[in-house]
Amino acid sequence: MFFGIEWDTSSQWAFAISIFPILLHGLVVTLQATVVGFFIALALGLVLAALKSAPTRIIRWPAKLVTEFIRDTPLLIQLFFLFYVLPEFGLTLPAFLTGALALGVQYSAYTSEVYRAGLEAVAKGQREAARALNLASSRTFTHIILPQAIPRIIPALGNYLVSIMKDVPVLSVVTVLEMLGVAKIIGDRTGGYLIPLSMVGGLYLVMTLIASFGVRYLDTHLPKRGLSLK
Amino acid sequence: MNDATNTRDPIIKFDKVVKRFGDHVVLDELDFEVQRGEKVTIIGPSGSGKSTVLRILMTLEEINDGVVYVGGEPLWHQRKGDSLAPASEQHLRQMRSQLGMVFQQFNLFPHMTVLRNLTEAPVQVLGVSKAEARKRGMELLEMVGLTDQANKYPHQLSGGQQQRVGIARALAMRPKVMLFDEPTSALDPELVGEVLNVIRSLADEHDLTMLLVTHEMHFARQVSDRICFFDQGRIKEQGKPEEIFTAPKEERTRAFLKAVLDPDD
Hints:
The structure holds 2 protein chains of 2 kinds.
Chain A: H1 12-52, H2 57-72, H3 75-85, H4 95-120, H5 124-132, H6 137-167, H7 179-190, H8 194-221
Helix pairs in contact in A: 1-2, 1-4, 1-6, 1-7, 1-8, 2-4, 3-4, 4-6, 5-6, 6-8, 7-8
Chain B: H1 3-8, E1 12-21, E2 24-34, E3 39-43, H2 50-57, E4 65-70, E5 73-74, E6 77-80, E7 83-86, H3 89-96, E8 99-102, H4 114-126, H5 130-143, H6 159-171, E9 177-181, H7 189-203, E10 209-213, H8 217-223, E11 226-231, E12 234-239, H9 241-246, H10 251-261
Parallel strand pairs in B: 3-10, 3-11, 8-9, 9-10
Antiparallel strand pairs in B: 1-2, 1-4, 4-5, 6-7, 11-12
Keywords (chain A): Amino-acid transport, Cell membrane, Membrane, Transmembrane, Transmembrane helix, Transport
Family (chain A): Belongs to the binding-protein-dependent transport system permease family. HisMQ subfamily.
Membrane topology (chain A): Multi-pass membrane protein
């Protein structure tokens, strides 16, 4: 029994069907961690991108160093630091939050690059034309640069959303009961790992295919020349 | 400053202006003046600093030394007592409002309709009402012959049409000086004429000062009050179009004109 749901070991099919609702509990946690981690990555990445394009080197360099550090160390180490080291300094976060934070921090390094690349890809002549017309720099950013950068940025961010989802199982090592963690417990208790783990793999395949389709749809349907302003 | 002195002063004045890109000297202590209402064409080999003059005036390119004056006021500097200090962004904004620029690559805003391209800056910068800006925008589109394209996006237009929108967009800000940076160089040959016709009609306006960088020599000869031949960051020779095109004094000018006018020889 898990999450108050009994499993049926009378046959393999019955077993699979009976543990499906249990795995769905884990799936919900997986999706929650994905979404929370993604939003942390979006926000933190924006901060990093802004710092990395700051006019002074004193701000730029630390931000670049942090990005590089995050990218070049494994997610698991960052997760262990947040989960085991922070409590030594008196800061204890719930396992789920720790996990989502680790994902968010890890992926902020990537989203910050997506933002930067997206903004830089807007033709230089656009900034020059805006300057020649005396548009304020804030207006230039919000109405000239951003509308042209967003259609490039969104599909790239979507790809990282899929990556985050596939990294959520790492959180099982710090006791977060996401889908893989749930499947492992079912295996531990029943002695049968094949079916729960296969089902997790299958569910992941379905989610990833749906998400990838969504990203591809965005990629082809977002206006190439920018979000139009009439 | 009263209007009488205003009209006598050159509207544009370069005073020993130096511009370097790394070790490469683009403008070498350039002295250059344009009078109010004058139509001046800059010609010369590529890399001679022609476009840089326009880009410095549009504040797209900073200068390394010297002083640039627009309407008697330093462009890249501010008067502080008797000395000059680097210009603030506020000063640059104020100075920039006197100038309009037409780019080689048009640089229209691709996500905005043609009309929105013409109204965005007047509404945001000049504080004109949307209705007023649209009205003026349509008048300008009529002037460049594109009223039926108002609600299209730039990519739906030909290159020549896009550049005509580019000219209208710059005019919408009511500049005193129009800068044309090789406005027809990116166009297919059959589309050059329609753009030149629009520029030609502007040249008839007495108050408007025009500074043009182009390789269209016959056109330059027709519309310009003065031709300046640039070579290695300086004005090598300047004068009325007839003088420059029929009797250039400098060997460099002769060689350049021969190369561009009879490229097959």
